Amino acid sequence: MTQEKGMRCLVTGGAGFIGSNLVKRLLGLKYEVTVLDDLSSGFRKNLRADPRLTLVEGDVRDGKAVRRAIEGAASVFHLAASVGNKRSIDDPFHDAEVNVLGTLNVLEEVRRAGAGRLVVSSSAGIFGELKTLPIREDHPVEPDTPYGSTKLCAEKLSLAFAKLYGFGVVCLRYFNVYGPNQRFDAYGNVIPIFVFKLLRGEPLTIFGDGEQTRDFINVRDVVQANLKGAAADGVTGAFNIGSGTRISINDLVRRIVAASGRRAATVGHGPPRAGDVRDSLADIGTARSRLGFEPAVGLDEGLP
Ligand code: NAD
After folding, report:
1. What is d(CA 49, CA 26) in angstroms, rounded to the nearest whole number?
2. Centre of ligand 1 from the C-alpha of residue 15, in Å
3. What is the pLDDT of residue 94?
4. With a cut of 50, which residues of the chain have pLDDT below it?
5. Residue nearest to ligand 1 atom 36, measured at CA
6. Least enclosed by CB within 10 Å: which of 58, 98, 155, 177?
């Protein structure tokens, strides 16, 4: 992505949590931005009115809608997806249609339009239960859920198109992302759920013993990774995007309680959830060296 003012980008899923944070930053950098979003889990209100922003309300499963939206785009950020393990277990067909066939539409239109670079949002969910810690890019990919499987398929398709048609593709495997515009009522986003419940004085439920660990990354750093991915001319591949640190859910609760200024929270435990891995921690060495990615927002600063 050559950073020229007035240049147009397409952000699929731009009305969602991560997409809307990316759109805000792109507009701040003076890009013209088209968002393609069916508003199934994203919101119009996540996007501020801006003369350089065009919202195309449409579905990535609709090739014609993707073709319209991609017009004039020099870079494409593909975030639109059916997100979450539980949702994918409940409806694997929907998951596959949006995440696999939707991605194929985006790839086909990037190829046809000759758009410069493509940055695809992938997920640490492709790895499944970890075998080594931290998780490097070459860790075995054995997803535990339809969601992880469809994200892996989308990644592989993207990299195959890059090889076949010679355009640059960067797939970013996010670990646990948190930050503004994240829903507390959707697919197990533990930080906003805990904050919401804590502020309402409701008990927090931890699935399992709470000693499971996660690598939480602030959405500002995920936005940074997208910009680096788009700017990394000549680089194609898949990269882990996390903070490179991990914290147990029990510790997370303590940090959230401290950040809220409350003295304590009522915490209960439920059974572990299907499809949840025990531990997670990204090795971000490759993203550092090849994309120039450097996480900058720690949990203490980033917690709401
Ligand atoms: P989100 O649900 O907030 O955003 C997804 C957006 O895509 C929404 O605005 C939704 O309306 C849109 N969308 C869904 N189906 C669509 C369709 N068929 N056509 C057009 N638009 C559609 O989720 P998010 O957390 O912002 O996720 C963004 C991307 O990041 C996804 O690709 C997801 O797999 C990936 N990811 C997120 C996390 C995380 O922790 N949030 C972790 C790993 C990967």
Report:
1. 14
2. 9
3. 96
4. 2-3, 5-6
5. 123
6. 58
